[in-house]
Design brief:
This protein has 189 residues and is of the alpha/beta class. Helix 1 packs antiparallel against helix 5. The longest helix is centred in the middle third of the chain and has 12 residues. The protein has a six-stranded mixed β-sheet with strand order 1-3-2-4-6-5, sandwiched between helices. Helix content is 41%, strand content 13%.
Length: 189
């Protein structure tokens, strides 16, 4: 589809969405940030605060993400950030395969509108949408290169989800270490 703006794209998919979560969510949480960015981060699904405000990563995980971005001299206006599933799963449970599938075309179109050089997965739900058999414990911190038929971007980078790492010292340290590799990818371009 040919959308003139990201807002047009989001409104189209929100109206057309058949995702069951739409019935219980306050609103869709659209991706946010710089649509011209060379880097797109993909999370899992909106939480309570995101559902209330309609903005991704505004809760505790988002605060931690901002700290990591600052470590690599970046902020939200340098990146674009979105979620695998655009509606909040009830009780903050994991999104189901059906829910992820229901938002998949929306996500692909969003990515093809931006055409980033690098797509960063925040957690296994985002990663498994593209790489269904890989394990995040094995591929985190590594560039995954693959050409998908319907996607312009070919380089991916998997990270642990900031919410999972927030209160886990070891995982937090690993996530920060992996995060600091992001500028190396762009230095090599
Ligand atoms: N966690 C996510 O994966 N996405 C959000 O928007 C917030 C928390």
């Amino acid at each position: 589809m040919n959308f003139k703006t990201l807002t047009e794209l989001h409104n189209f998919y929100d109206e057309a969405s058949k995702c069951d979560l739409k019935k219980t969510a306050t609103q869709a949480v659209f991706g946010a940030g710089n649509p011209e960015s060379k880097i797109v981060f993909i999370g899992e699904a909106p939480g309570k605060k995101e559902d209330e405000l309609g903005v991704p990563f505004v809760g505790a995980a988002g605060k931690f993400l901002d700290e990591m971005l600052a470590e690599i001299k970046m902020n939200r206006s340098d990146i674009y950030i979105t979620n695998t599933v655009k509606y909040r799963p009830t009780e903050n449970r994991d999104p189901t395969d059906e829910e992820k599938e229901a938002c998949k075309e929306w996500l692909y179109e969003e990515l093809n509108f931006i055409k980033p050089k690098l797509i960063v997965f925040l957690g296994r739900h985002a990663m498994n949408t593209f790489f269904p058999v890989e394990k995040i414990s094995e591929v985190h911190g590594k560039i995954l290169s693959k050409k998908f038929l319907n996607l312009d971007t070919q380089n991916f980078f998997a990270l642990y989800h900031p919410a999972a790492a927030l209160y886990n010292g070891g995982m937090r340290e690993t996530l920060m270490k992996d995060f600091k590799k992001i500028p190396l990818f762009f230095a090599r371009q």
